[in-house]
């Protein structure tokens, strides 16, 4: 019996996305990918050979169904008893001819501006929290700050200062009329 021939189907500028997953428990000659649902084992084998020159001994694939959720993800107010199943995920485990070793994870992420990404992620999560149905039932974030201020006032650490009235505001410089030539039309009879 003749062994299967691979590498015959040439792939030029493919319009698919393969995601290599970090799997620390698998052997070094195995790699796991997230792939589109329409990609088959032969396509995967040909893609790796033509794009990276990697010879593949075997490919295992499975489709992982996503969990049922109420309503579609990202909806502002989930509707009760409206069920939605997100798109399934297809994973492929490839046995390669030569081992692959992951590079070490970087210790510092300043080069990629990770602090800005983390701040944006935190802000996004806070915004999404306001759209949850039980948002109004939970105490607000300002409540903790108000409680701290009240404790400081009661313990005597801070003194009470009333809010200044309009005539007590600090005005720098002289008062000046800004718009003198504006004519407001009369309304009504």
UniProtKB/TrEMBL annotation:
Q: Where is this region: Disordered?
A: 122-189
Which keywords does UniProt give here?
Answer: Ribonucleoprotein, Ribosomal protein
Q: Which PANTHER family match?
A: LARGE RIBOSOMAL SUBUNIT PROTEIN UL23M, RIBOSOMAL PROTEIN L23-RELATED
> Which GO cellular component does the record give, naming just one?
mitochondrial large ribosomal subunit
One GO biological-process annotation of the entry reads:
mitochondrial translation
Q: Name one Pfam family in it.
A: Ribosomal_L23
Molecular-function annotations in GO: structural constituent of ribosome
Q: How far does the signal peptide extend, from start to end residue?
A: none
Q: Which SUPFAM superfamilies match?
A: Ribosomal proteins S24e, L23 and L15e (SSF54189)
Q: Give the compositionally biased regions (Basic and acidic residues).
A: 122-145, 156-168
Membership in a protein family: Belongs to the universal ribosomal protein uL23 family.
Q: What ranges does the record list as Acidic residues composition bias? A: 169-180
Q: Does this UniProt record's set of keywords contain Chloroplast?
A: no
What protein does this entry describe? Large ribosomal subunit protein uL23m
